[in-house]
Amino acid sequence: MSRTLMFVVNVDWFFLSHRLPIALEAQRQGFTVHIATGLTDKLNELQRHGLVVHPLVLERGSASLVNGWRTVVDLLRIFRSVRPDVTHLVTIKPVLLGGLAARLAGMPAVVAAVSGLGFVFMARGSKAAARRWLVGILYRVALGHRNLKVIFQNPDDLRSLAKVANLPADTVALIRGSGVDLDGYVQMPLPEGVPVVVMAARLLADKGVGEFVQAARILKQRGSLARFVLVGTVDPDNPTSCKQSELDAWVDEGVVECWGHRRDMPQVLAAATLVVLPSYREGLPKVLIEAAACGRAVITTDVPGCRDAIDPGITGVLVPMRDAGALADAMEDLIGSPERCRAMGDAGRKLAERAFDVHQVVATHLDIYQDLIEKSCNRG
After folding, report:
1. Ranges of residues in the chain whose predicted pLDDT is under 70
2. What CATH number has the domain bearing residue 314?
3. Which of 65, 159, 291, 355 is 20–30 Å from 349 (CA)?
4. CB of 311 closer than 8 Å to CB of 347
């Protein structure tokens, strides 16, 4: 009997980069796959993969209750029309708004993928504490479905949200990231010549872009000949995004290069000597598991998500969050030790093969779908 899977994702490009393999395997196993998402320029690509697309207006940079309720109403209409056997909600707003809509529409099974807890859980002070209290209420409502599995990417997020949302132990699962295609991301020898240090991420303040630039500036002042590269673009819908004028000023200063958005990440990582992500908090960063698969040493911050993507001291180095000086020292150490970079890269590839193979990640998701479908049928 034909089954239907519905993804709800904030924006189309994120789905293509992080969840497409799951959708394709679901199709192979007989699911009709729908996606409700905000559209940029990826509609044709989604449709080429056989997905039924439902455009969704989901303003990522807006906290408006009116806009949020409009999204809930749109999702209610879509859910009642499609009647999916499994509804898979991905990232914060789809989990919160889609979780509420799924309960109101009586959806039989819900998967909520929490790929990071966002800046609300990172901010400090009394206002941030009040916001976390409110968000906790929203999560308890959104994640109150009786046939639910909540997928976390690191144990810190699991513990934090399970406590805030009162999630029973049998409703949570830990899957370390969205996986990496080990055939597409292959280990390559370190490039020769001037070392290239790459930070690939959305160019947001809470990704540590400022610390990366400042660390590069410190090393340039010390006489380093290394090239420091930002790969990514500004995100105008995110309140912490860098401004284009800032990027232009850094490039004019000669402290970093900006390579923009790149679709050829295996080639980007092959050109890198070292990969850096000084983020403030993550679910589990895809770029770090891609770097591991390509045999590249990593420097990242000792925060939830980032530290879970490496074996500290073996595949990479941890530094304190918001500490450009410590980041500069760590980069200088590894730039000056190519043998250590090679050893960490070799260990990273083994870690990727052991823990991050996309085929394992996809199989685990399909098992979760099947389990929830069986439970909903038994409840009949």
Report:
1. 1, 59-64, 118-124, 380
2. 3.40.50.2000
3. 159
4. yes
